[in-house]
What does this fold into?
Amino acid sequence: MSLLSLFLDEPRRAVRNPKDDWKFPASYLRVGTLDATLVAALQADVAAFDDALWREEKLTSYLSEHLSTVILLQHEERHRRWHALDLERRLAPLLDLLRAFYGGGEPVLVCLDRLCGATTIPAHRDGPQIRPPYPAALPSFYRRTHTPLVTNPDVEFVIAGERRHLGAGEVWEINNWRVHGVENRGDADRVHLLVDWNAPAASRRDGSSAPGCAS
It folds into this structure.
């Protein structure tokens, strides 16, 4: 057994990091809910994706071979699927919701994440050093929201030890600077709509006063 494997296998006590509460002093923050008609239409879109489309991008493959991504928007570039699905118009209610909730801002990443059934995303912590290659001028304190489109009762986020099932159509910010992972104990795949939102600086430490804060 190598020294490296001994280090990786050694159980280590969870240590709180000063970054844990930088975005907001909680693990989950409820932002709102998408209209059920829009959610159903997006579910139909996702159902038509073949496996080859899911495997085109490698954005999240470092986390798990069972996690795959379809990028829709990155920086100011709208990808072909964004145009094909008319998402500029159809996702306007979600983008308006985020703009109102955070007091301004713009999306810097919009993608669909699929986690296969009976698999997990291992515990990890995101941060400036592990994120898409955003422009240097972009602050590291982007806000990450998840909106489940396809889910089942056996899917749970686990953030800093707190488990939570996110319902279809619910828009949640997750504190991805805390240690977090996902468990899909169901047989079906889970698909989330993920948005990284470049919010105004004033919104980045105001989680304690935001509605729906649950630590």
User: Anything to note?
Assistant: Confidence is low (pLDDT under 50) at residues 1-15, 206-215. The helical segments are 3-9, 36-47, 51-54, 80-84, 87-90, 92-102. The chain has one domain: 18-214.
